[in-house]
Design a protein that fits this description.
It is a single chain. This protein has two domains: 134 residues, D-Maltodextrin-Binding Protein, domain 2 (3-Layer(aba) Sandwich), CATH 3.40.190.10; 98 residues, 3-Layer(aba) Sandwich (D-Maltodextrin-Binding Protein, domain 2). It has eleven helices and twelve strands. The longest helix is centred in the N-terminal third of the chain and has 27 residues. The strands form three sheets. A five-stranded mixed β-sheet has the order 2-1-3-12-4, sandwiched between helices. A five-stranded mixed β-sheet has the order 7-6-8-5-11, sandwiched between helices. Strand 9 and strand 10 form a beta hairpin.
Length: 258
């Protein structure tokens, strides 16, 4: 083997070794972050998590549920590192209770409430079906745990229908279960999040009324870094990534305003 050949293979070996070491360094720096996500935000967050892992190497481990339930779980020691709530009150409470890091609260989306049925033509664009009684059951989320459920009750109050429709209401634990009740036919219609039934501004199936925002408290949603996420690179990275142009584009595509 001549000297030039040995030099070539030696250089190639060193380059491969350096590349392998670089990949090992990246892998060693990659980490996971445990995220509690309000049910209404499940679809966009799954997509954001995929892009986040592709762009940073960090993995977001997602749990979905009602914001009120997450508050209780976090107070009882659940090791979530980041909370994406469906309101602004819960992140503030957690900060005041010393369970979230001060200065890390961020608004990430403003949601829209929709009255939806899987039956075409049942729900008109003004929601007048609520006053006609042409349905048996109306699903909505527990207002004590889910901000979208509280907003739904505000709408019924604005329409003067709270007492009239109370016997027909099927209460769900969260907004995801509300959707399931309607999709399965256990309720003819229900108040759900726009992101659950619209995609790129179009209703995927059935019929719907997009509730005017003036009829309920704004569904402004905040995220906050929780104590277990302190000093964790993956948690800090996701908090920042949620404000990136790529994440914001995904959020907007699901009907949220920013």
């Amino acid at each position: 083997m001549n000297a030039s050949f040995r030099t070539f293979w030696g250089s190639l070996w060193r380059a491969l070794l350096l590349a392998s070491l670089a990949l090992l360094a990246v892998a060693s720096q990659a980490a996971s972050v445990s995220v509690a996500v309000a049910s209404n935000f499940a679809a966009p967050m799954k997509q954001i998590a995929t892009e986040f892992e592709r762009d940073t190497g960090h993995k977001a481990v997602l749990s979905f549920g009602a914001t009120g339930q997450f508050h209780a779980q976090i107070k009882n020691g659940a090791p979530f590192e980041l909370l994406l709530a469906a309101d602004v009150q819960t992140p503030l409470k957690l900060e005041q209770e010393g369970l979230a890091l001060a200065g890390t609260r961020r608004s990430y989306a403003i949601g829209r409430l929709v009255l939806w049925s899987r039956t075409p033509g049942l729900v008109d664009e003004a929601g007048t079906v609520l006053g006609t009684g042409r349905f048996e059951k109306l699903a909505l989320a527990n207002p004590k745990l889910a901000p979208y459920g509280a907003a739904a009750w505000q709408v019924l109050g604005q329409l003067g229908l709270s007492d009239k429709l109370r016997p027909r209401i099927v209460e769900a634990a969260n907004i995801s279960q509300t959707l399931q009740f309607v999709a399965s036919g256990n309720a003819a219609l229900g108040f759900v999040a726009m992101a659950q039934v619209f995609e790129d501004g179009k209703l995927r199936e059935g019929s719907a009324w997009v509730v005017p925002e003036a009829m309920h408290t704004p569904l402004r949603q905040e995220m906050v870094l929780l104590l277990p996420g302190k000093g964790k690179p993956a948690a800090q990275a996701l908090l920042a990534y949620m404000q990136s142009p790529k994440a914001r584009a995904i959020i907007a595509a699901y009907g949220y305003t920013l």
